Amino acid sequence: MTMILTDLPTAIKRSDFASDFLWGVSTSAYQIEGAAAVDGRVPSIWDTFSATPGKIRDGSTGAVACDHYHRWEEDLDLAQSMGLNVYRFSIAWTRIFNGVDAEPNAKGLAFYSKLVDGMLARGLQPWCTLYHWDLPQYIQDQGGWNNRDTIKLYLQYVDVITRHLGDRIKHWITHNEPWCTAMHGNWDGMHAPGNKSLPLALQVCHNVLVSHGHAVPLIRANVPDAKVGIALSLHPVKPASDSAEDIAAVSRHDALRNRWFLDVLYGRGYPAEALALVGADAPVIEPGDMEAIAVPCDFLGVNYYFPEEVANAPEDYPLRTRIVYPQDRQRTDFGWEVSPDGMVTLLERVARDYPTGDLYVTENGSSYDDHLEGGVVQDTARRDYLIRHLAAMRDAIAAGSKIKGYFAWSLLDNFEWAEGYLRRFGLTYIDYATQRRIVKQSGEWYSAFVRGKN
Ligand code: FCB
Description:
Elements: E1 22-26, H1 29-32, H2 45-50, H3 68-81, E2 86-90, H4 106-121, E3 125-129, H5 137-140, H6 149-165, E4 171-176, H7 178-186, H8 198-222, E5 227-233, E6 237-239, H9 244-265, H10 272-278, H11 289-293, E7 299-303, E8 308-312, E9 321-324, H12 340-353, E10 358-363, H13 380-398, E11 403-409, E12 428-431, E13 436-439, H14 441-450
Parallel strand pairs: 1-2, 1-11, 2-3, 3-4, 4-5, 5-7, 6-8, 7-10, 10-11
Antiparallel strand pairs: 8-9, 12-13
This protein binds beta-D-fucopyranose (FCB).
Beta-D-fucopyranose is lined by residues 28, 31, 176-177, 180, 233, 303, 363, 409, 416-417, 425.
């Protein structure tokens, strides 16, 4: 049952933000493109994982998804019609290389080239995510991100992409949410490739961060006027109670959830508190790694969805904490807590504790069980979620935050990883049977807002 949010800010307008504030949407290749075997694309770990029974809740795969590979013009038209000025998308590595020693695939490069031209023709500034989880399966077959050779292959791929598209793309995100790549992929096994080993996950995490560190100067060498950053999934952490034990649990959880990434990216090394907890499971670090990871970036992308609440749990390895889900919180239909204040707390904390430079909310959004009725989708709860998060962002900026842009997740309903098509995050509804796109009430609202018409 969808909960309608009540305490809505009465007025929020685009003119409450700087005129050069960026307004966009985010998407990712595997979640929307489909066309899994077209034009030389090879399988990614998500093709393998989603074809494995029991891994995806509705048994689906991204083989067709939103068929964006064939319908990209219509989709970019939608983004343009919403009045947006930026569009964040990711490139599928599997369309660019089909083997370790292969030449770049001209058809894959041509697709992204015309996609980027399509963005520019519509007044959409392209923001490119180089890695949004879809590692080629042939690389996983030789150890994936656990194998340091993958860093070299990633840099080879980044080199080709930035040489090919760097004349038109100036904003680059090396990785989307390394937490998910590493931990969901290799610790809890919820995501591809589905391993369940903490030391493996921590090594993967480290290698991904090293690849980020080496990619930044490479991108800058190929694209002299590039702006480069990374997108992290960060969560404000709250104690489950006022007890001293629960309050102490917050720091342990935060050490692995947030500081494990932020501290290394900003030159402080892995947090001692977390290293002490993981002990021998800590990653192997090679000389020069920490310096490489700490390369200064132009911006930090923050993907914000919900806060986490933790309790002391002495039996839980390694953090001795447990996430709790109190009943009395406002939640989306996915169960994620709705907390615009959490976004503000998080952004203020990040800006206070780290020299991030410009901040961008590179993802934020909500999943509700939408219904197409009489040709329309009345997703009032998603619209209200959006209004409240934009109002929170406005207040944070008034209080001094350096947030320069906001990307709503997502333009379209899409393949939501382990949840398949059961979760809809789009501002646009996809009728998967016909691939019809229907802009939802939330999309209409965002569009009116961005156009300064509400
Ligand atoms: C983020 C992912 C994105 C999408 C949203 C809902 O963690 O980056 O691909 O699945 O969650």
